[in-house]
Each structure stands twice: as C-alpha cells, then as structure tokens.
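so i finally got all the pieces together for this one. its two components total, 1473 residues if u count the protein bits. some of the lines might not be protein, just check the labels. i wanna see the whole assembly predicted at once instead of chain by chain like last time, that was a mess tbh
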Amino acid sequence: MMCIQSLLLMLLCVGVFSVEVQRPRGVPSWKRQFYEEGKPFTCLDGSRTIPFDRVNDDYCDCKDGSDEPGTAACPNGSFYCTNAGFRSTFIPSSRINDGVCDCCDTTDEYNSGAACQNTCREMGQKEREVMEKMAEIAKEGFHLKQQLIQEAKKSLEEKKTKMTDVQVNKKDLEEKVEALRTVKEAAEQPEKEAKERHLKAWEDNKALIRMEKDKARMAEVFLELDDNDDGFVSVAELLSHAEFDSDSDGTFTEEEAQGILGGVEKVDTLGFESIWNNVKERYVSETATDAAAPAEMPQEEIREPVPDNDSEHYPDDDIPEDEDEDDEDDEDDDPDDDYKTPPTTQTQEPKDDVDEGPMPPYDEETQLLIDSAQKARDEFDEAERALREVDDQIKNLEKEISFDFGPGLEFAYLYSQCYELTTSEYIYRLCPFNRVSQKPKYGGSETNLGTWGKWAGPEGDVYSAMKYEHGTGCWQGPNRSTTVKLTCGKETVVTSTSEPSRCEYLMEFTSPAACQEPSNSVSEHEHQEL
Amino acid sequence: MAPVLLLWLAVCLSGAWAVDRGNFKTCDQSAFCKRQRALKPAESPYRALLETMELTNTKLTLQLINDNNKVRLLLELYRLQGNMTRVKINELKPLKPRYEVPDVLIREPPTEPLSLLSQDENGVVLSLGAESQRVIVSARPFRLDIMEGREVVMSLNSRGLLAFEHLRMRKDTFSYKVTSTVASVWDNIKRVFTSQTEPEVEKNEEADPANQAETAKDEDKAVDGMWEETFKSHSDSKPNGPSAVSLDFSLPGVEHVYGIPEHADDLRLKTTDNGDPYRLYNLDVFQYELYNPMALYGAVPVMLAHNTHRTTGIFWLNAAETWVDISSNTAGKTVFGKMLDYVQGSSETPQTDVRWISESGIIDVFIMLGPTPTDVFAQYASLTGTQSFPPLASLGYHQCRWNYNDQEDVRSVDAGFDEHDIPYDFIWLDIEHTDGKRYFTWDPHKFATPKEMLQGLKDKKRKMVAIVDPHIKVDSNYKIHNEIRSRDFYVKNKDGGDYEGWCWPGNAGYPDFTRADMRDWWASMFAYDQYEGTMDNLHTWNDMNEPSVFNGPEVTMHKDAMHGDWEHRDVHNIYGLYVHRATAEGLIQRSGGTERPFVLTRAFFAGSQRYGAVWTGDNAAEWDHLKISIPMCLSLGLVGISFCGADVGGFFKSPGAELLVRWYQTGAYQPFFRAHAHMDTARREPWLFGPENTALIREAVRQRYTLLPYWYQLFYQAHRTGYPVMRPLWVEYPQDPATFAVDNEFLIGKDLLVHPVTEEGARGVTAFLPGKHEVWFDVHTFQKHNGAQNLYIPVTMSSIPVFQRGGSIIPRKLRVRRSSLCMEDDPYTLYVALNVQRTAEGELYIDDGHTFNYEKKEFIHRRLSFINNSLSSVNLAPDAQFTTASWIERIVILGASKPSKVIVKTTDGQESPVEFEFDASMSVLTLRKPGMNAGEDWTVTLQ
C-alpha cells in the first residue's frame, strides 16, 4: 500500500518536475539556487547537509523545514504557490494535501484527491478591478484631501486672526466692566441707606403691633385658664393642661404646675404677665387648636422686599460640556437625591403676613435711588456677560487652533459635524472629536457610545483610527467605547457599525482625509510568475 | 449560558459576585432532608421477617417490618453477574406505585444464583459465589453485612438509619386543613393545633399495612412540610405527602470516598458532619461557589470507596432530590494522631459511614464489590453503559462564545484561526443564533443563509455546533410549540394544564422528555428537512436541561408538575438525561443511523455517558475555577462520564492573558476542550492577547492535536470498557496512599501524567511522579525521572508539565493541520518510552473517525510492544477490517541505547534497514522514516 503510494507520488513528482524545470515543489524562483538537483542540500539555516534525494521526500530533516518545501512533513515549513495570474504567496506546509484548496493554482493539493479549480485568472482579474477602483478612489480622495488641507490652513489662519481681534476686544471689555462696577457701587450706597431707613421704620411699627397682639392673647389665655373666673390662675386650673408637663414624663404634677406659676399657688393677671413667656410657648387652647404659633420671621422679612440682583444667578456656563451620561444602567448613580422632598415649614408664614400687613411702598425719594442703582447694575451685568462670551470664544478658538487634526489639518473639516448611519435597529451618530451615540430607531433614549479620546491607529498610521471612550457603563462590563476606523473614500460617510465585543463598538468611516497619495505602480506587489 | 434574568436578580439581591445562596435550599430548608437528618444512629426499628423469606434462582425476597408503625417493606436481594449485589427495598403494598427509575440500566442486570449457607432465627447467610464472599442478613434489627473471609466489606443499616416514609392517606383532620391553607397562616393555626390532641385514628385495623400505618403513634405527627412545603415564594403542594427513603452504609477500613458528582469540590469527598450533606439535585446555579457541597447542574448517584486493597462502589438508583452524608471516625485526626493510634495499637479500624436520603421513589442500590478500580468501572459500565464513542473531530478544539453575532462574525473568526495557524474543529453558536430563542430556527437577519455558512466550514473540513434547549417558546406562530401542544407533549402543572415557566424566550413550555413518544418526535425534528438550514456538519448542544426555569423554585421546575402519572419530584434528576438522549438519537436518525452524534449537555444523570459530552457549566475566569476543573472532571470520569471539560478561559468575567494561556494549556489535556465566554465579556479569540500569547495558545492547541490518536484510542477503550479517560492517580496506583487525595494533577489513560500550571505567576510546580518502579519521561525534553518522588519543575509561560510513563508507547500525529479531518491520512510518530526492564507497550486504534462502522468491525486495533530490542505491531482484532493511508514516519525510543543497525520487517517478509539518529545526552533513538503502513504487521529490530 505504502509502496504503491510513494511510487505514485514519485511518478507525480517526476511529472511535475518535467514541466517546472529544476525547481523542487514549493520553492519560489528566487530560492531555486539553494536546491541544486543532484547536489547535497544544506538546510537554509545551515544546520545540516543532506543528500538531495531527501529534499521533498516527505520526512523532515531540517529544523527550519527547508528540506520539505513541497510536503507537509515539517511543522514549520512553508509552501510557495506561484498562482500565475494572481498574487503568488506562501502557505504553511500543513496546508499541503489537506483536502482544502488554498492556492488558486491548485498546486497545494497534488495528492489529496481534492477537486480544486484553478481560479487565479478570475481572482487576478477581480483583484485588479478592485485595485483599480480603489486607486481611482484614492486619487480623487487625495485630491479632495489637498483641498481640505488648503481650506483647513486658511481657516486656521482666519481663526488666528480672529483670536487676535477677540483678545483686543476682551481687553476693552475688561476695562468697561471695571468702570461700570465703580458706577454701580456708587449708586448702590445711597440706595442701601435709604432702604435700611425705610425698613427700620417698618420694623418698629411691626414690633408695636406684635406686642399688642401678644397682650391680647395673654388676656385671652388667662381667661381660658381661669376656669372659675376668680381672677386667678391656680395650680389646679393649670393641671388640666398636660402640655405644660415640663419633664414630659407623662404626668403633670402639682409641683411642676407650681413651678410654672413661679413657685406660688396662683397668680393674678399681673403675676400671669411675668410668667407669660413661659406659658405661651406651650399653651394649647382649649377651644381652638389653631392657636397661632409665635411669629418668627424676621429674616424672611428682610429678604422679601429687597430685589437684590445678585450676579450669581447667571447660568454658570452655556457650553454643553458633557451632556451627562444618560444613566440607564448605572444604578448607583441615582439614589433618591433627585426626589428628596423640599423642606415643608412655610405653613404659617402667609398668615403672619396678612396679620401684620405687607411692607408699605417706598417713598418717592427712595424709589428714585433704587431705580438709578438698578440701572447701574443692569449695565454692569450686561458688560460682564459680554466679557464672558468673549472668554468662551477664546477658549473655543484656542481648542480648535491647538487640536490635532492630522499632519495637514485634513481632519479639521469634521470638527463640529455629525454623521449618521441607520441600521435595522438603531441610528448611530458620529460627531467626530466629540462623541458617538446610538439611538433606537423606534423610540427610546440615546446611549453614549463614548466621547472623544484619542487617535488610535497603529504606530506610524495613528490617524487611521479614532477612539471614543467612557460612554455609558455596561452591567458587569466596561464603559461603552467605540473605535472608528477611517478609510479612504470620496465621501465622508459612516459605512458600518458593529459590536464585536459587548459594549465595544466598531465603526467604519470613510473620508477623503484618510486617503494617501496613490503610488503610481498598482501592480507593484503583484508578484506574477508565468 | 447565563440566565440574564437571574443576573438582574443577583444584582438586586446581593450585588456581591458569587452565588446567591439564598436561592437554593439547605438541608434544613428541604423538609424531607431535615426530617431524615433529624434521625440519629440508633437501633433500627426494622426487623426482617425470616419466615417470609423466599429464595429463588435469581433472588432472595424477604419482608421487613417497622416495629414502630407496622408498615411492611419488601426486600429483594440479587447477586449480579460481575461481582455485584443489588438491594431493592419498596413498600410491600404501597398505596400507589412508587417510582422506579427506568431507562438508566442498559438491561435488566443478569443475575447469578445465591445459595443459602446457613440460617437460624437471627438471620441467614448467603454465598455470593467465589472468594468466600457472603452476605449476612440479620433479622433483629435488620441489617446486611457483606463479608469476604472474616472481613466486613460493607454494612447496610448498621447504624439504623433505614427509613422509608410509606405513602399514606391525607386525613381530613386539622393537619389536612392546615396544609390546605396558605403557609402564612400556619403559625396562627399551629397554636391551636398544639393544644389539640392528635386526632383519633381509625379503630378498625386492617391487614393492609398502608392502613395499619395509620395506627402509628409518633410517625404520623404532622411534621412541618409533610403535606406542603414552601420555599421563598414557591409552594410545593405535595399531594402524595411524605415519601422519603434513606439508608446508611458503613465502610470499614475505608478513609477515601469519591464520586457523587456534580460538586465544585475536591476529588476526595469530605465529611459532612459540620455542614450540609452533598446534594444531588440538577440546578442551574448562577455563578457557583467552589469547595462546597451545593448541588450543580448534574447528578450521578454513584460513590466509590477505596483503600489500599479494595475498591468498591455504591450506585443509588434514584432520580429524586438526594442528599448524601459522609462521616468518618478518622476525619479530623492528624497524621500524627493516626500514627499514635497505630503505635499504641488502640486505634479502632478507620471507617467511613455514608448515608443516602432521597425525597421519593424506592431504595434500589447496586453494590459494586470491585475489588480493583477497573473492576468497579467495568461493573458500573455493565449496569449503565459506557461512554459513547465520540466522533474524532469532537476531541479537537472547540471555539465557542455567547455569541458569534452573525455569519460574517463566524466567517471572520474562522479566518482568524487560519491566519494565526491555530487548528480547530468546531465553532459554536449560542442562543442568539435563533429567531427569538425559538430553537430549530435561525435568526433571519444574522443567520440568513446557514447552509452557506456550514458549507463554508465544511470546505475547510470544520464543523459547527448550534444550541437547542428544551424550553419551548409559547408562541402560536412557532411550529415546534404548536406540534408539541397538539400532541399534548408538554409537562403538566399540578392542575393539569401545560406547565409554563420563564426562560430565555420568555414564557416557555417544557416538553415531557420522560415520554418515549415525545423523545421520538423530538428526535425526528433533527431531520434535515425538519430542522431547516442544517447539514451533516452541524451538531448540537443541550443547555438549560436541569431544567432551568427562571421563575421556578430554585430556578427549576415545580416538584408537583406532572410527567404523566409521575411527579416532577420523582424524575427531576433524569430529565436532563432524557433531553440529551432524544437529541443524540435525533442526530443519529438524521444520518440514517450511520453517523456518530456529538451532543453536549449541561444536566446529566447516571447513564448520560451514553449520549455524549458534559461540561462543568457556567464557571468563571478565576484561578480557582481553573484548578477545580481537574477534580470536577476526575469525579465525573470515575462514574462513567469521561467526555468532560470546563469552559476554557472561564465563562463569567474576562481572564487576563496569563490565566487564559494557562487555561488553554490545561484544557488541551482534558477530554472536552472548548473555550467559551459570556456575552458581557471582552472578545477573547486566541489572537487577541498579543503575538506572544497567541503563540503560547497555538502551541497548547497543537499539542492537543498531536495527541489526538492517543485520545481517540482512549475513548475507544472507554467506550469498550467504561474505564475513564482522565484518571485520578489512585486509579492506576491503588496501593499507594500518597496518590489517594491528589487532584492537582491527573493521568490521561495510564501513560500520560499531566500537572498543569494553575497558579498565577508560577515559577515552578511540584509534580508527584507515582510508582516505585516507574520511570517518567518529560515529553518535551525527554528527560528521565524516577517514580515515587515529588519533582520540582521550574516553569515558564510555555511550560505544560507532561510526562510519559516508561513502559508505554504513545502514537502521535506531528503534522498538525487546520482540523482533525485534515490530518486523517497523516503518518504516525510512535513514542516508545522504555521502562527499567527495557520494555514498552501501547495500542493504536484507527477507524473512519465518524461512523458506526466500527461496530461492523471496520477498524484497525493494534498492539504495539517493545521487548528484547524489537518493536512489533500485532493485530488485536483479527476479525476487523479497515485500511488506512497512514504510515509510520518516525519512531522515537526514549531511554534507548545506540544500536548498530535497525531492520524493519513487513508482512511480505521483506527486510530493509532503517536509518536512525541517536542522541546520547538524553538516550533518545529516532528511527527515520521506517515507512510501514499503520494497519499492517511489522517488526522493527534494533541490533
């Protein structure tokens, strides 16, 4: 069996050899010189020399596999497919006669019975077509890229000019702000004094009213407590009011009652006046339960009437820096902070206002002072806002000017643009140098797939990929991130998206900016042998 | 595959990264276990009624009576061929039949006559045939002792823990009312109840033991959980009431017991006195914990007991929830303490006591009397069958992930293997490949042209596995569901409707795989014209077949669900086996009975080895999980399931490069070699960790492929004999106690010793090389080491410490190609490792690798032996016929001396010289291209 086989094999080899003159199977033409028919063969690593009949004899003698270029005997060998009409290539020698067609010229399957078709011409044809198309795209793309570079340079210059202008502008504004600040402060001083005067007058008036009210209530309480109408409030009468239980132990003793009465058995109205401050805090009316609690609102009153325009009320920054993560997954993020109920202690206030009345309007003189101070404030605020805007402008310009838009700034045109791709389920949105997001096609909230991180191409080709990081977190996984692969194209388009690994997205993006200068020889790496 | 739903649950409930123990019962939470475990060793209330004894040619029968309640049991005792004893105990007259597990034994075990040696009023002595083996039946209290000579091998009920909860009527009394109300009212009523006297039982005593039982005083007290039981929010209606069975076994002289998988624990079983018993109840445990007795996905109720002169086994054939208690009189004693005992001569014999408790069914125990480990394997195989003989390709490398997203993903992963020159045989598709988790379908967008994809793989001589789970989406537009419903094949709930539970597809039905007609139908669904888009290179994976029910008690089916007349309680542990079986039969049938199927299962039972492979479920990317893969697969191998593996890399979490590489290196030397990953983990195809790690992984996988001939031959042996493929050391060195607890290394067959590196940052490992008279050769360096030593081996990242036993011959195929099929006709290299006697022996098995034709004697099986400086190949199966194109390209003789001449002689009598090389430093002789056909007789002589 074996003998027949090797015989067949030898016949086959001879057959092949007669066509491919003097070249052992699997050896490329440029290595032919090392395999000289009939002369001892030295392994290409020089490790040993063997008789020539051991070359391609289906037994591995050389450590580097070089004695078996045409058989699968060596684990580390490689076989050369000529692939006339297509690209020639090396395949691992383990693919020789394994029943799978690897070389398009079928030469790897010379003894396996696999029915391989020579497809080199078709493949070559196809590849050439593809290459031509790609070359055309590259050419046009590269042309566009040159334009982009020109535009970006121009734009950069413009921005630099603008920067200078804006910086001058900023200086002016700063001066203006300072001047207006002085004006404002000068106007505010008399305003403040006038308002304080007005307020003090009102406060005094209110204190008077409060005292009257307190007295009236004291009388009322006295009458209520004085059950037997004898003109005295006695220990006994007090005992029915458990709210006076000073140690709150549940029993209101006579001693405790006496303590409240100032150590005596009973008090008349005068005596009652001296203990009133003790009593009023705790007394609960027998008739009505809504006895007004003592007024306690001085602070409130001061704040209310003064429309003090504080500059702090401006929104801090109108730049949507990071529209914070839509937190669908991360649970730790939202404990009930958002739902905390606001403190609810304002129930009595309106009533007091009604009792004592609102503050009377300012007199004409005061009002005039207020109006002019307000005008000064408004002008100052306006100037300050303008200054802030200029600051932002400078910040943005600085960022844009210093941003890495590629060696020729060819990627600058992508700045502040967005590109979308709609798949069967989602709309993907790439805003270069800003963020990537995904939104369900049919409703649902947007998911952040990462914000701009860095250029992430391999060394030497760093502008071929972008990395967007720190997107919405995944359960038990990393935060979402996206790698955007840039390829040369005439148009700027997102061509595909995928999620090869959970929460790690891959986006293909074409842009002329990614085009390289086309080499003029398309067929350079087409190692054609005929 | 991880239950996503549970994922959420786990987050909500614990947040910690581990199993949520609260989802699973402890013995205390399982009413029958608690009840039974409350019984302490004491004099047994059972008495043998010797006057009822009948001895026929095949068995002895005898009634037992419980003196407490007068219930009678029927004992059947068989002596089985092959040195086994079967003990069967059932109620003499049960109210209704009790479940006896069918379909596990491959046939009614053939018996051998028992002969009566002596009898008196205390008991009877029966002969178990040769070797002075006898069984003694003692009458009062009842116990069985199996003796050999003067030595007790095993005793049953010697601790009086035989318990048999007879079936009884539920009485319309307080207890009835109590159990029929919701449990939350229970406490309330209990107060009333305890103040009541026990309701009076019927006065009219009848001969019927079931009614007699009603007279029992203490037994009928309504113990909590007898007629209803709740766990978390689930209630078990228990219409049949208490039905547990229990029996104790004493093993004098035994300190090492093994088996009863599946548990994530050491190879040697621990005593359970201070915790829960080992539990056998097939469960989908999310993120299981290591080193504890909790139940996992599968259950094989077989325990092996071993000491230096005997190995025995206990096979407890019961498919209900089962708990196994182990105690030992030497546990906890230090080696020094034992030595002291020995010196003082005061020691009692070491003894291990075991107790089995099952929730329902009967007691049906097979006592395998060994006496050698291989005898026990053969005995167990004669009962439940052997490992199915897997297609050769399934012994190659499997690339899996939850999920390969679409056909393009599959194509590019496949191309990645070629690009990085790493062989593989199977690429796997998890649940996402289906159309909305409807098994037997393909996602119309992601897998629009499955046949094209399969053909693409076939063109490269590769294959695919797609998942088919047993939960069926309830969807009237789904053919499979409609057919099952129209045939009324679904498991029923306690009220008679179709049982429905929550699983991957949402609401799902569970086909009743215990029904033969259901299984036949299921099998027919794998036909190429039924299961659209399939081809012969598509194989199947059964997951979630415990069965997993996300919203069920303990994530499984309610025990009061009905399989025909039987409760799920009775059949739970065998459900997964039936799924596996029906699927394997489907794959056989679709080929017209010619092709060997490959089916992987997660749930299993005794006998599952007959249907395919098993993996250790949803492990995690942690070093301890890598370590535990060894004892887990060793334990499975001991009880017949050889085709075992763990997810390489770990299912949950993402492994670092070092762990991943070490796992490949370990997995390459374990029977089922598959990488798998959870959906939420980063991609981890072998080439994603940098060129160095890619090279390390490639090398590990290539080592696997070179050894495929050896693996294949061992699986053939396992299929023929039941011997495990992956073996604990003690199996081959049964007299060396130093091997008894080793589970950080293992043997493949008997000739390869593997000590994988499973420690992070390891600089070296200490391997134990067993055998006083053995020598072991490092397979990479060919360095020779003596046996019976601890050998320190410095390791680097590329090290996989593997040793070939002196005295063995291992065939390899060194031309590793892109898949096993590509290597079919490749030549062999024989590695002959000489022992101190300068002899060696091995086998070579060859067949077509994928059909059942080997059953028709179409194979080559040869014995290779080296003796007297001559290596020859002799036909072990002269009546078999097969031809191979493979030949012998190289013979490497380890531990050889330099010959002057080497001659090969073939069948035709031709002699020719063979060239050779001799490496004196390692004493390695390499014969160059002797060239004989691997299927022929030949002799190579060194002169």
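The first strand of chain B starts at residue 46 and ends at 55.
Residues 568-590 of chain B form the longest helix (23 residues).
anyway lmk what u think
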